[in-house]
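Posting for a labmate who doesn't have an account.
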Amino acid sequence: MITRWTELDRERLTELLPGSLVVLPVGAVEQHGPHLPTWTDALLVTTVVERALEATPARTVLAPTLMTGASDQHLPFGGTLSLRPETLLAVLLDLARSVAECGGRRLVLVNGHGGNQGACRDAASAAVVRYGLSTAYLNYWDMAGEAPSHAGVVETSAVLALRPDLVQELPDRAAPAIPQVPDVLVQPATFWRDADGYTENPARATAARGEKWLEAAVTTLAARLSELERVL
C-alpha cells in the first residue's frame, strides 16, 4: 500500500516521517500538441511513482504531486500553466523546509518535465545546506532508459496506455529536425514555433509501447528507492 501524506493525520506523520523517504513528484500542466492532455507530464510522473511505491519495500511517504512546473516556452500555444524557474525553485525549497519542520529527514524529488530539471537539481542541493535534509533528485524517464520527446512517440504511447480516452486524433507528419551539436545543449529560439509545439511523428505511437516503457521506469525506480533508503 502507498502511504500518502494527504491521508494521514499529524500524529501519524510525526511518527512516520523521521524513518521514511518523502517522495515528491514534480509535474507540469502545459500544451502537448493538438492530441495530448495538458496534464501529460503530471500524469506520467505520478503514475510511475505510485506504481514504484507499490513495488518497493522501502519505507516511503508520498507527498502530493506538484502539478505546475516551469513551462514558459509553451505559453504562446495556450493551455499552459507555468511558474518561472526561480518561482519553482522557491516553491520546492518551501516544500523541503516544510518536510524538515515536520520531522522528515530524507527527501526524494522525482521530476516529470524537462523544464523543471534546473530548479529540481538546485532545490535538492540547497535543501541539504539550508534544512539539513538528505536529498536525491532524478528524472523518472531516466529509469526507463529512453527519454521521451515532448508529445512525441513515447509520451503519446504512454498516455494511450493509461488514458486513451484523453488522446485526440494523432497528427501524422514527418518529424521536425532537432539541431544537435555533440556535448552541447542547443536551444534554437524558433524551434517550438516551427514544430507547432510537439515533436516527432505521434502517429507511430502505440499503447503496447507505452506500457512497456512505463513498466521499465517503474521497475527501475522501485529498485532505486530501495537503494536510496539504504544510502540516504
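Reply:
Got it, the C-alpha cells are right above this. The two ends are 22 Å apart (CA to CA).
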